User: Fold this.
Amino acid sequence: MTIEKKEKADLIIVGAGILGASTAYYYKRDNPDREVLVVEKNELCSGNTSLAAALMSRARADRNAIPLSTETYEIIPELEKLTTDKIPVRYNGAIHIASDEVSEKNLSSILSGLTDYGIEWEYITEHQARSLVRWLECTNSSRIAFISGEAITDPYLLCMAFINASKKLGVKYLRNVEVIQLLKSENVVYGILTKDGKIEAPNTVLAAGAWSTKLAFEAGISLPMAAIRSQYWISEPLLNVFNPDDPVVIIPGAGFYARPQGNSLLFGVREQQSVYTSPDKLPDKIEDHMFSNDNGIKDLIDNFRKIIPFFPSFGDTGIKNYIAGFSCYTPDNLFIAGRINETEGLLTVTGCCGAGISAAGGLGRGVALLAAQKPNPFDFSNYSPDRFGQINPFSEEHMIKCGLSRSAKTSG
Assistant:
């Protein structure tokens, strides 16, 4: 597509993953007379969003993230009504297992947060957990909680629901148009430069996931995150073992989570030291990147002894697929969302920390309101893009810190 040099919009969003798409939807819904343009260098929703495990967990160590996820749950019927498409959301619930004193304390804090927001949960016995999930063994558990309303979804279809709904409202999407740089004059960002020309706008939202870091840095802005490998495996189907209606299982002490994928099991582990990629070595397309030559098998072996007590047949379970992508982690395991201090006209929504699908509704709505100069009902005070000051996102020290924050997660 050829872009006129003087083409303008009221809001430009860089990136058509779920955070960019949700921001576009809310902004256009609440400001129907304003022009919104989303620019994506590849196909829509072709980056990490479509590779996510898509646990729509509201149970988070960060209490401010709970209403963000609740917003995602609440917006789904609206998206379905507008698009007339059914979003495949399964409300299977989630089992959280504490296996030691530390994980029990963390679980208690997480559940307290859910209670504060009126989300129901209950402690259950080993027998009850086993009746819900046939492959699960809980004799090494100190506490087991069940959250009945937790959901899982197809991340690509949820993202496309935001995209299709926003298109119906008049949002324009440019596919296969690469953003070369942010247009900046002194401390004001006034648009973007693409290979096809300039586009100007009073506000630009940087929502390009791992690719946001380099664009921001070239404009003198440091985003405190790193591109960390997020990986999971999908087992061979076992009709009498894995059930599509099974709850999600999260075991922080074992660094393990699992969710049903039809009659297969989708599961992931958390490594002691996560694999990271420098912002200047990111591929143009995510499928062009090789994280490891062994499809993460070493990580399964390293975690094997921790997983077996809870999943006795783990070693006998065949693997059908291996999926790896980029999650953007920060040193404190918190999102990056809001305006960039000392820089006018620029906002960002990124640093998903493995929770971008779940929190997409609240993050998108909050950033859209900020872009429109309206009050944000969500607490973004801990998500400031420059909360760490001027850091070097290319440094090994910084990327290692971000990787360690993923390894230390205590929730899904």
User: Anything to note?
Assistant: Residues 92-150+228-327 form a domain with the D-Amino Acid Oxidase; Chain A, domain 2 fold (CATH 3.30.9.10).
